[in-house]
Amino acid sequence: MDGSTAILTLQGIAKRFGDKEALKSVDLSVAPGEVHVVCGENGAGKSTLMNILAGIHQADAGTISLRGMPVSIPDPIAASRLGIGMVHQHFKLVPSMSVAENLYLGRNPRKYLVFSNRAEMERRAAELIARYRFDLDPRAPVGRLSVGQRQRVEILKALAFDAEILILDEPTAVLTPPEVGELLDVIANLRERGRTVLFITHKLREVKAVADHVSVLRHGESVGTHLAAEVSEADIARAMVGRQVFLSGRGADADKPRTFGPALLELENVSVSNASGRRLLDAVSLAVRAGEVVGIAGVDGNGQTELAEAIAGLLPIQAGTVRLNGRAITGTTVPERISAGLGFVPEDRLDRGLSPTMTIAENVAATNYRRAHLLRGGLVDPARRDAFAERAIREFDVRGAAPDRAIGQLSGGNMQKLVVAREMARRPRVLVVAQPTRGLDIGAAEFIHSRILEAADAGAAVLLISSELSEVLLLSDRIGVMYRGRMLAVLPRKQAEEERIGILMNGGEAQAA
Amino acid sequence: MKAFRQLLRAVAAPLGAIALTLFLGFLLVASIADEPVLAYRELLFANFQSLGNFALFINRATPLALIAIGIVFAFRAGVFNVGGEGQLYLGAMAATVMGLALPGLPGFVLLPLCVFVGIAAGGFWGYIPAVLKVKLQVDEVVTTLMLNFVALLFTSYLVNHLLRDTTTYGAISWTLPESVWLPSIPGVPNATSAFLVAVVLAVLAWVLLFRTVWGSEVRAAGTNLRFAETVGVPAARRVIEAMIVSGGMAGLAGALYVLGTGHRFEQNFSPAYGLVALTVALLARVHPISALVTALFYALMLNGAAYMQIATDVPRSLVALLTGLLVLLMTARLRRQSSRH
């Protein structure tokens, strides 16, 4: 594709924020009517680049050409006039207003020049929805829609402006796997109608099916554009990180015989119900042996969160037994379980994992004051506590961190590293990790994976819960699948073909299991 | 050296805000007063002109500091304790009742008893909203505020109907036996030695909050309750404990006021100490040591305004303007800092 046929061409785009060089020199050429994926790790400059196209930031250097003509995009209104629409990762919708009102916010059709013409607005919204075959009710308040539906409202909003080029910023980050599938259908549909789609992501795997070209950004520079059909996931991963990526886990050498110790974590018919009596966990039984990694796959919301919290002691168990190292811990408190040798990495680091406004040292020390001897004469010894945090920072390669900084100022990957560091510092016998790499870039994810495997090699029983099937397949010796609070099957890695797991995740074989 | 520089950085902004407030206030005074310099000299320095004035200044600062330090505990546990006033009154009343009930006991027994029941009464008044919040998710701002009225009306009933000194006018209780009167600060007649207690407690509060596991657990519960649960903190218990400490400090302020300054319960002894202390705690960035310093500054302004009014034509309500300005300038800084990241 050369510059003359491209709808959008970027040359030498550079942008700096203070002393941070977000973009050094980016070239990009997008053909009309294609789906162009822009990949890059967190911090590679993807969002900055798209914000420049959307008129939110202005480039310091370089040229933007639209249909061969150089243009300047001073603000978002100019961008939409040029036919560039952006769907942000964080939706910009008014929850209390209806779908139609959100679509026509600020430019609603008028009656007698002053009154908003509601009927006309809803008619046009219904037309727009029908044209793109979306499943939306123009009168429904946005606050009551699912995340996937809200995203479609955002897309429609851009289309209502007649956007020719649609930019989607990490659209899959907020979606569940089935919703991702629906989004891809929407994108394919848009391409059929001749729209150009720029798709920003750091997870190529999900979008490869609909992509025409893939461009990779690394450290603010473009490192090449490829035909999507001609590159593998590993190629792209290598281009994003700039080196060979460690993608081998236990899944890769499943044939290698391993011997495991005694079962350290045992669940026997564990059931949990919520206040209204709905079964969140339904007679779940599971055993994880010393040195073993058991992965739990499943679509989000099928009881994985409850499973982790029931083991961690955060959710009361109505029936069944949990045993840790042979001892029943069913009714014990969180600190008792921690003392018994449990390590727990919760699924949401900002919710349960950390206290963002407290310092790094205090967050890392939280479960370790007594065990790591951070006290002197009954009082916290700041020197020892800070040294303890320094050690975690060094061991987990957390850059730009000092013990007395608020942990919330770190990047997601660095926060997650410190949560894992805190839990690993006690050398737990049983380690429960939930969604350990959600939202992390490849480098950080790879690092955390290797730490999880090291813990298992050292003899810990590891329960890995993840909605990323690739992660479960990569790391686990055995794989369990959860569906509607039930453990449908626990398969040895060799029998766990991706297809079979996929069927189980959707409740297939439910009768058989 | 590093710690000192950190401290300097921490106090630089509040000091800047205070300086700016005083400067803007001076412009204000200059525009309305004939003798602005004299007015300001009275406002700032009259407190130190005589030992008597200085004692009054100390007596004003003491309850403010004690309540504010208590409120720091509540804030750190994530509870907005607006009930300082009620806790203060109950503490004062409990100490008075104890002192009047057992006048025959020797001072070294009765004095600690009075202090203890004062703390207990205030602590109990902090316990109620804490339990309601933890168990039933009742908003503590409402409960602490409402309990203020309960405490004020209840103590008003007691002082008017059961304890009233019938030999004099006003809603004033009988005077406590002299055996339980607190001594003055050595060298400063009439300045309550309760101030020394406040100084010691400020340091102790800092140690408790920032150098014990208990303190880190309270702060964890206050900043992220779900995180606290996850790392094994009995979060609900810590919140309740912090509120008992908070109420207990206000109760202590009441007890020590009665024992050290008033020597009896007066129905209107507090010029809204509880609410002013809330502002003090917030302006001190929820830090016990700076709460002590801020309480001193507030007392300086409150008393200085009275001298200013006597000596010049500037009304004492200027001080309300100045404190309002101060709150504005301090929070303005907070906002800018939070929007930076």
UniProtKB/TrEMBL annotation, chain A:
Residues 8-244, 265-509 form the ABC transporter domain. Keywords: ATP-binding, Nucleotide-binding, Repeat, Sugar transport, Transport. This is ABC transporter ATP-binding protein. GO terms for molecular function: ATP binding. Gene3D superfamilies: P-loop containing nucleotide triphosphate hydrolases. SUPFAM superfamilies: P-loop containing nucleoside triphosphate hydrolases. Belongs to the ABC transporter superfamily.
From TrEMBL, chain B:
Its main location: membrane. Keywords: Cell membrane, Membrane, Transmembrane, Transmembrane helix. CDD domains: TM_PBP1_transp_TpRbsC_like. It is found in: Cell membrane. It is a multi-pass membrane protein. The chain crosses the membrane at residues 57-75, 109-128, 140-159, 191-210, 239-259, 265-284, 316-334. PANTHER family: ABC TRANSPORTER, PERMEASE PROTEIN (PTHR47089), GUANOSINE ABC TRANSPORTER PERMEASE PROTEIN NUPP (PTHR47089:SF1). This is ABC transporter permease.
